[in-house]
Prior knowledge:
This protein is mainly beta. It has helices spanning 15-25, 143-148, 256-264; strands spanning 30-32, 35-39, 44-51, 54-62, 66-76, 84-90, 95-96, 99-100, 106-111, 125-140, 161-164, 182-196, 203-211, 214-221, 234-245. The chain folds into 2 domains: 3-62, no CATH class; 66-245, no CATH class.
Amino acid sequence: MSHYDNIGFTGITDSQSLVDTVKRVAPQAQEIGCFYAYRDPSGAELWIGTAEEGVYAVEPYFAGCPQRVWITTVQAGEYGNGTGFAQVWQNGTEAEDGECTDGDYPFIMDIPDIAAFPESTIGTVQTVKVCAFAQSAECFADQAAYEASQPEEGLKWAAQCFFPEDAFTDDSDAERPYPPAIALFAGFVRRAEKRVNSFTGSPFYYCEIDTYGGTWSAVYPIETFERTPEIGSIIYGEYWITGRLADAPEPSPPTAEKRRFWQKNARQINVN
């Protein structure tokens, strides 16, 4: 499965199926800078990067619960496709010598449109809309069931915990120029819904998870759970993190000429 499955864009298995999807959403996409954004009533979004040569990026996105963060770094992605990432501190408010001193934990979040996340935000507190796309997840009926799943010896995970992947990697690894926007976290389910992507007709799960440091939005492919998680249950999983500034510019309807241009020039693209 790909991250597209998390928000009901099923059937995207290769470059051609992705191109076909781009062409089909074109009449409903809105323009923002060099991107076009399709926003589904379910909350699912596709951010489509364009240039003279055609389409070069298709990023899945979901505007999740707002988080207050201290911005440490903002950087364009390694592929030069209009995306990027930010390193931030959850609930950070103060810094010394440019380093946050009071945040709960740092994490990396990928950004679908880096142009809307200016470098001037570095060293400031911002509100971001972040969503966690599950790469794997397990649901436990209650805290007792969750604790029973923990190993008898060794490291045990709290019912509310959050660990960025970088906490388990070597910062000196020269082969990792682009930090992974991946985190492991567990928390209590405060909201859970089965939503349907109106474009594809495919369902997916949307949950709000009360974890360490705040309440996070998370989306899951429909195959992840047998049924909608119960309120009060605990979900533990590995997630890809993506987000935008809460006050970032909003898309607007493109001209007919521009829409025809990027429909015509959609080319082979890599699947996320």
